Amino acid sequence: MSFSKLTRRGLIKTGAAASAGLALPTYLRADGHTGFTNAPTGDTVTLGFNVPQSGPYADEGADELRAFELAVEHLNGGGDGGMLQTFSSKALDGTGILGKKVNFVTGDTQTKSDAARASAKSMIEKDGAVMISGGSSSGVAVAVQALCQEAGIIFMAGLTHANDTTGKDKRANGFRHFFNSYMSGAALAPVLANAYGKDRKAYHLTADYNWGYTTEEAVRSSTEAMGWETVNAVKTPLTQTDFSAYIAPVLQSGADVLVLNHYGGNMVNSLTNAVQFGLRDKEVNGKKFEIVVPLYSELMARGAGANIKGILGSQNWDWKLEDQLGSRYSGTNAFVQSFGTKFGFPPSQAAHTCYVQTLLYADAVTRAGSFNPCAVVEALAGFEFDGLGNGPTLYRADDHQCFKDVVVVKGKENPENSFDLVEIVEVTPAEQVTYAPDHPQFAGGSLGTCNPGA
Amino acid sequence: MFGLDKKDAGLLLIVAILALAAPFILNPFPEGSAMAQFNAGYPDLMQRLVIFGIFAIGFNILFGLTGYLSFGHAAFLGVGSYAAIWMMKLLTMNVIPAIIVSVMIAGLFSLLVGWISLRRSGIYFSILTLAFAQMSYALAYSVLTPITGGETGLQPKYTDPRILDGALPDGQMPRANLFGLDMKDGFELVMGNWVFTFNAGYYIAAVVMLLSFYISIRIFRSPFGMMLRAVKSNQQRMNYTGLNTKPYTLAAFVISGMYAGLAGGLLVAMDTQVGAERMFWTASGEVVLMTILGGAGTLIGPVLGAGFIKYMENIVSKINKTVLEQWFAFMPDGIEDVMVALVYPFVGKGWHLTLGLLFMLVVIFLPGGLVEGGQRIGNLFRSKKAKDTSPDGSKTPAE
Amino acid sequence: MDAIILQILNGLDKGSAYALIALGLTLIFGTLGVVNFAHGALFMIGAFCAVTFSKLLTLSHIVIDDTQKDFLGNPLKVEVPYIYDFFGQTTGDAIIDWAVPLSIIFCIPIMIAIGFIMERGLIKHFYKRPHADQILVTFGLAIVLQEVIKYFYGANPIPTPAPEVFAGSFDFGAMMGFAENTIIYPYWRLVYFAFAAVIIGAVFAFLQFTTFGMVVRAGMADRETVGLLGINIDKRFTIMFGIAAAVAGLAGVMYAPINSPNYHMGMDFLVLSFVVVVVGGMGSLPGAVLAGFLLGILESFASMSAVLEFLPGINQIIIYLVAIIILLTRPRGLMGRKGVMEE
Question: B120 to chain C: which residues are within 8 Å by CB?
Fold first, then answer.
């Protein structure tokens, strides 16, 4: 056929035009001497920040992106250094990572696993990213984590709360700093028992997908262990916007606590609807009716407005931690100071976890002395650190999950501004939320071994 | 050639050349230059371009020929994907059985959906297909989680049975392959500052796309295709002549469902993961947009439309403020800030805005889609007088 | 029994939102023959009218308070709404509290203007184009509109509460002799239901009893003949488009306290409202309203836990399932006319 000739001629032409001389085919798989995917060559290294920029979580993604930007600035020696000063590991010195200046590329996950993988792949294949971070949902985290494992890239999860990320879908190349459903349940249960008593009847509304299931299971098992009774658990479709049909029968059931296992837009709407029904002004079984939201997020609290007043939930971190609970949570103020100065408002927990993950990755590379994912995995697994805002923290080697204190918060009665919507009720120490790696809620997966790609 | 007339053979040849030379064509800018942002010649995007091309070609067989507007085609893509990933989990990581099964399952599912939906026409048909697709999505995301993985989707795991494959060496991830040829294999050609990536997976997908394109040309030119066009222009008259049109439309529906399943299977072959979102109604809407944007009823249009949308999604969404600042760095400070502020809302997180505006512009000014745009440019070069007499003149909106 | 009454109430309320959107959609379809995918976006813009109006009311100037510190340790900037300066704090707060109902006045002219601009500037050129083109161009417009809103308001939902007096819920059960707290319903949702009933009634009365309405109905049946009679039907259709936009906008304004508005709420409603219109029968106004209420009630029943135990997941698919069954048994929906959108 004629086209082979055409191509060859085209090729020669292009080659001549580029005056490149020799064309050197190199095998992708044998990406040479370095032995791992996207080994940084020049004097820069590229990180990929894959966050939701369109869709309902776009604002959360924007906050994550700000944190990444700040982390890169600090790694490259710009700004006031943020948490680099308070971080217990002193390997980072503000000259980039291993002397290479940090560059970053961004992408849009659209909070869809397909789009997130496409975006992550373009970072890996086109931009040569050696680490991917970010994300705002567990579906995306699990999908991108699996991709990074295949490609031989490190994945530092952003906001992902389902047990599966470090449970049945865990991967050797993936790491999660954020807390999980189990920890929420374990941290909340004692606080709930204190605040509302041990003789309560709970009604669960659960988002009908993986994260909802794991959260319901975690909250149910820890509250039931404490003496609560679960009256009913109803699954609500993800695409639901009006929850009135689910909330209306709650009072009839004889329940006196409503647990909303919802996140994001679902949470804003279900909570708003529940408050509209006046549930919080009712008395059932001689007790004041209460609502609980296991996973809080500042942005969603803002969306729900006054409806969150007095409602208990858990968080990974809060920007007021160090001010209110002392220097155990050092790093918090340093981060809030540099973030607030740069952007004019305090950071969210999503921003915090993304910032910390970037620093932890950079530190692990520096301590390992190599960008090789296997070296990084070795440096991070079982790593104990402090000074990143959560108090002493362990990156457990068995499942690559961080173990640290969990913050229990409550919607503030009289917020002073739109960033000060929650108050810290209590901090549950790490020991209370630690579980065995083979805990039934996390069973069914294996890390496998690290994959350097190439 | 291959039973095609000269014009069609030429078209096929052009598409073949474009597909085979894509690593060059899509990477026009040297590495490291500011314009490298616009390079699309990396394996993942090239694969997606051809796979969604297949999806759109299939959709066009139904919509372009019969005029039946299905709003639920993503369901067939999704069902195909699930079938393929289960083949990979249970049978073998070889892509051949996965793709064959995905086409078959999608074909069966589209037979069922088509058999029911084709009882109605017009918008009633569209809503029926939409309803089936939305039900598939909702169920796959929630109650069918044990089969579909729900929110977190399905990926092949080290621990899957895979009865045809030998045990994996320790630490080795299961990789999709074609008789041992890894989909991620390939080589890079470095020429000066240009880097061209040739990827095995892409070429496999491209060959499948060419085959699909060829089959679609044959369908368009066959008596069967003529029959479908007749249905589009006046179904009633067809019925009055004593002809039952349903077997023809159902066949077209199933063929296009199988194309969607093929695309779904290939997606899994290239990137071994499935999530329920690929069945959401916006995904069905996307293939409609691809087809109309490119030019419904034309052979090449859907492929162009698919390429256009996937390119926007993957390239424009990655342009962030830092990139813009680099581009305009040569300008004086004040002007640079103004330029960045002007362009920023349209790129990065604003890529949807650009997409929406482009849809509107194309539909308003190019009723025949991108293909018509190409023809107009072609006409411009051929003769300037042709403009007034062109048959499309009447279709353009009155100003 | 009480559970069933409760879900019927619920469904009526849910259905009133569906019915309002579907009504506007049908007005546009029935009069102009245009499939308007931007209708959900109009609903969303309506909700954002409420947001904008309450933002305007709370438009503030900044007073620096040296006695307090912000989170960075700088002097606190206290925002004082201008409205306090004009009316004093008590009246000011009362006005802010009533922002949502007040924004109806603000919303109607804006929505009518948007409707006019849309029809004259864009839709007009698409009357003779295929439905697929209409869908594509209005879909593009919907994306553009929602991205513009996102650019100014962000992606996060914005809380827009109803006036304080409507907080809490009404106990129907106690009124009808059931036990306390078994059938409760939020006041604002009752307001919404009543509001929807008034709007629907007004639209029907307008079409039924005014000369203008008569001409429009004649135009819906046979546009050409009405034109031949020397009536400028185009102008009236433009006005109808404005009215349809206002109906969608009003549905949105009053919906803002029920669910905090966000930029993609229109897309969330779009598919659903199309299903409602088609189930009701393309081009039939009573059909759209009927189908809206019917689907609302069925959706409420499907979400009962007693039902979910037998049929897990039925709440996910009920609307679509009903749509399929109705379209298969009644070819043109509940009250559709022959020959509409079947080519």
Answer: 327-328, 331
Chains contacting B with at least 3 CB pairs below 8 Å?
A: A, C
CB C23 within 8 A of CB C310: no
- Put simply, the answer to whether C271 touches B131 (Cβ < 8 Å) is no
Contacts of B273 in chain A (CB under 8 A): 113-114, 117, 143, 146-147
User: Of C8, C13, C72, C74, which to mutate for an interface test with A (greatest number of A Cβ within 10 Å)?
Assistant: C72
CATH class of this structure's domain B6-318: mainly alpha
Amino acid identity of residue B216, one-letter, is S
Contact C101, C50 (CB under 8 A): no
Report the half-sphere exposure of B371 (CA within 13 A, side-chain side).
20
Quote the minimal CA–CA distance from B396 to chain C in Å. 9
Over residues C273-327, the pLDDT tens digits come to 888 988 998 878 899 999 999 999 999 999 888 888 888 888 889 999 999 999 8
DSSP states along A141-172: HHHHHHHHHHHT-EEEE-S---GGGGTTT--T
Contact predicate B55/B285, CB 8 Å: no
Cross-chain Cβ contact A164/B152 below 8 Å: yes
Strands (E), chain B: 177-178, 181-182, 186-191, 194-199
The C-alpha angle with vertex C271 and arms to C268 and C277, in degrees rounded to 5, equals: 130
Q: How many CB pairs under 8 A join B and C?
A: 121
Q: Is C82:C288 a contact under the CB 8 Å cutoff? A: no
Residue-range domain boundaries for chain B: 6-318
At position A8, the amino acid (one-letter code) is R
Prediction pTM value: 0.89
Separation of CA A61 from chain center: 11
- Both tokens of residue A278? 């006046």
- Rounded to a whole number, what is the distance in Å from the CA of C166 to chain B's nearest CA? 35
- ipTM over 0.90? The verdict is no
The minimum CA-CA distance between B318 and chain C, rounded to whole Å, is 17
